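Entry type: protein chain
Record version: 2
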Amino acid sequence: MFGDEKTKAAFLGCLGEACERTGWLVHAWCIMSNHYHLALQTPRANLVDGMRWLQGTFATRFNRLRNERGHLFQGRYKSLVVDPDGLGALCHYIHLNPVRARLCDVDGLPEWKWSSMGWLGRPKSRPPWYRPQAALEHAGALADTPAGRRKYADYLRWLADDEPARKALRFDRMSHGWVIGTKTFKQAMVKEHAQAGAALKRGDDVIAILVEEEWQHELMRLLGKMRKTPAEIETSGKSEPWKLAIAATIKARTTATNRWLAQALRMGNLHEVSRKVQAWACAPDRALARRIGFTPRPKT
């Protein structure tokens, strides 16, 4: 799936878009030949929504580029809850993946393009959603300085050669089970999941409500920028340029679905919304884009 560098770069670009839409913070990442690893934080509690967008969007682009159809990813992604105290160890595990797979040696990790090690060592290349602090802190309270980053590379060299140290960090369990953490942390998660399960049985769809409230808040903010009122949504045409501008901007900044946009902006058929909004985003009205703060994305 990730057999060539263009595909890896396209997935990394898609991940960046997902982080901008969802507010995710990524502590470590690695793209292998047929899978990827992410250590990410979801401040808005939107993992499912964001992963649906990330994998669905990448699969659509992948298939369109190759004129293929069908599922790209085999089954559902696997997600493990991570104890904050163990987050740094998980970052080390992810950074050493290419070494275990013999894609590069440990000395070549800082220059290997397809993991966050390159970003950790070169601050100017980092996007705003990448956070190296957990890895640096866990490796010995290292500072995010040239000296600290060199010491982190030294730490990974030592860790790659020291099997007892890797066992102590439970490297053999990083991809198993449902949680990474201490026994106390697991017990707390069991209790929390039981409470969440009980809430779902009562019909409390809190997360979905919060997500749609986020989309609605963005809609109202953009209406203000366009000097439009909610009443004008009802009285204006389905394909008004300002509606297309708002829809394109919401799609660029959130995980709002075409169905929701079609209903919220009274834009008709959701498939028509997808086609028209995508066309506007590829060739936006410059005046409207400036007013609303829409930035066209480079083609990938």
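Comment: The longest strand covers residues 25-31.
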